[in-house]
Amino acid sequence: MRLWNLSTTAAVVAMLLAGCDDGAQVSAAPDPAVIARGKALFVGTCGAYCHKITDTGGDALFLFDCDWKHGATDDDIFRVINEGVEGTRMVAFGGAFPEGDKDARALVAYLRAASQCKK
Predict the structure, then answer these.
(1) Domain range annotation of the chain
(2) How many CA atoms lie within 13 A of 13 on its CB side?
(3) Is 97 within 8 Å of 104 (Cβ atoms)?
(4) What is the structure's pLDDT at 91?
(5) Percentage helix, strand, coil, to 5, in the chain?
(6) Which fold has domain 32-113?
(7) Rounded Cα distance, 33 and 99, in Å
(8) Would you call 75 helix, strand, or coil by DSSP?
(9) What's the pLDDT at 30?
(10) How far is CA 52 from CA 3, 9, 49, 63, in A?
């Protein structure tokens, strides 16, 4: 006699998962349209004046490696985009994008998607 069937297994897995909610959030894969918007913003704003897509040197930081000088979390990057960095050429873009914070988040998504970081 078989004790487990597919519906029993599914019910047990559901119960286990329901009991494992520790408040952690699993982020969904970035939307390709959001990444494309972030790239367009980067090319037209950031890359057109300071930051480059290739690591060719210059006085602005290369943003596609693993070396984040002013914070490495998405929220840190978002803050730097919006507030700038005092004492550097990084100006505050908060409110300057057509879609405000949504566009700043799109930039963060693009930087993450285009990262050359090899972890």
Answers:
(1) 32-113
(2) 7
(3) yes
(4) 95
(5) 45, 0, 55
(6) Cytochrome Bc1 Complex; Chain D, domain 2 (1.10.760)
(7) 14
(8) helix
(9) 80
(10) 61, 52, 8, 8
DSSP-H helix ranges across 19-73: 32-41, 47-49
**What's the pLDDT at 6?**
34
Closest among 89, 112, 95 to 42, alpha carbons compared = 112
Residues 29, 107: Cα–Cα separation, whole Å: 15
> Using one digit for the tens of pLDDT, what is the confidence trace for 47-91?
988 998 888 878 899 999 888 899 989 999 999 999 999 999 999
Residue from 101, 94, 112, 104 nearest 27 by CA? 112
What does the pLDDT read at residue 100?
97
Please tell me the distance from the alpha carbon of residue 38 to that of residue 18, in angstroms, as a whole number: 35
